[in-house]
Task: inverse folding
């Protein structure tokens, strides 16, 4: 074996240390995802259908319409989904999006968290009374012994948006548990990271 080859084998563990650290850094970066805009997911869980909502809402670009009481429900024919316990809420208008996501109507058996809702047909967005723009929201409701068919909802992803494209200027409803697209930004960043990892590997190889 040549001296060069021996030197390569002898020093390769030290050369692999920065490569390993880089890989750990990339993994850590992608294990912590930035908060998504508000989205509510409707999923079949056993014999029940569960709606789970989370994320912030940016009210910039919407117009305040007043405060009133409201109840949790699904009016699919009117593009309405209200998640969370009955509460005093603030309403805003000024968005665009689908006017319906099915033909049914239903009220949940149990609810929890913040009251958040949307009515696509009437251009009304509901948030907790006194809600501060971009504050994180979280809520859920459960329909016992139900299916998408019995609720009269059509599986798919429905998005209502407003403003000038700033972060969190949208409300997303996902029926069926499909993932929320991130516009390709995460995929692009991962691609650059992997290219950097490959380049570093070539540089450290003999």
Result:
């Amino acid at each position: 074996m040549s001296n060069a080859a021996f030197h390569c084998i002898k020093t390769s563990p030290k050369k692999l240390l920065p490569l390993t650290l880089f890989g750990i850094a990339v993994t850590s970066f992608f294990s912590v995802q930035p908060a998504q805009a508000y989205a509510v997911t409707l999923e079949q869980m056993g014999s029940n259908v569960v709606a789970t909502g989370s994320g912030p809402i940016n009210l910039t670009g919407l117009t305040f319409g007043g405060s009133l009481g409201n109840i949790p429900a699904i009016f699919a024919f009117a593009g309405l989904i209200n998640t969370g316990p009955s509460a005093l809420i603030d309403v805003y208008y000024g968005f665009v999006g689908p006017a319906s996501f099915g033909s049914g109507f239903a009220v949940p058996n149990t609810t929890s968290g913040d009251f958040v809702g949307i009515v696509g047909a009437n251009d009304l967005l509901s948030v907790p009374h006194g809600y501060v723009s971009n504050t994180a929201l979280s809520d859920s409701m459960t329909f016992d012994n139900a299916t998408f068919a019995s609720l009269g909802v059509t599986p798919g992803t429905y998005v209502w948006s407003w403003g000038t494209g700033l972060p969190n200027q949208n409300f997303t409803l996902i029926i069926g548990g499909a993932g929320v697209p991130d516009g390709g930004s995460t995929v692009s960043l991962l691609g650059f990271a992997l290219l950097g990892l490959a380049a570093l590997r070539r540089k450290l190889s003999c």
